[in-house]
Structure formats: structure tokens, C-alpha cells
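Quick start: read one record
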Amino acid sequence: MAYDESKIEDTVLALLAAFSFEGGRAWKGFDFDVMDRLHAQDFIDNPASKNKSVWLTPQGLERGRRIAERLFSANSGNAG
């Protein structure tokens, strides 16, 4: 099955933002190619390091939080 890479990137960014701490730090544990693409878009710092976490850029944190709110909010109005 083919997937929409931009939707995957949005979801990973939303998860990074939703679980971020210290003002934009998040544990990395997602597909390397997706992380590289998020870095290329200036949403996270370089994931190719020995660190087990990455920093979201201010624009990455803002965009990720907006997407997380849209996708994961308990108050989204979706019947469940």
C-alpha cells in the first residue's frame, strides 16, 4: 500500500510535539527517512546524532501542536 508521505510527516511531527518536554525536546524513535525530511523542512534539529532526542524548532513545535490538537484532542467533537 502506498502512503501519503506528507500525512506521515504531519503525524510524526504531531507526536513529537504532543510528547515534547523542556520546551521542545522530544525522544526520537521514528523512521529515519521521516525524521530526515522533517529536518530538511526545518521542523526539528539534525536527527543524525548520537543523542536519543531531538529539538523541535519553534516553527516545528507550533505546527506540531496545531496538528496534534486537530488529530488527538479529546474535545474534537468526534463521536467515539
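The first helix runs from residue 5 to 18.
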